[in-house]
Amino acid sequence: MGASMLVFVDQAKHIRIVRRSIDDSGQSRRESLGRIPKDTLEVPSNLRSAITAEESAELSAAIDFHKRSIAVGRQAQALALPEHLRVALEYLDTDASDEERRIIVAAIMAAARQLR
Description:
Elements lengths: L3 E7 L3 E9 L5 E10 L7 H6 L2 H27 L1 H14 L3 H18 L1
Antiparallel strand pairs: 1-2, 2-3
């Protein structure tokens, strides 16, 4: 069999790991190896035992990529908070229904209490 590589398929709750290789006849082969839950990014033992040392390094790099992505996403959301608050307050003043107003104000008040 020829060279192989891991393919990381992003799904809503998991990262699916597939080994792609070319067999001796030149045909492309895909072998599903398992999935990693995004909420923990922990590699299941059956997946760890199914990969080579070289693939393990690839997998570690992919997990690091996803960890950075999560951290950067949280940072972007936090840094955008002032703008989101401004837009929310404008919406409260102009377009919000009474029910929407209650829900939004309650969320803002709960956040303010946590800061104290």
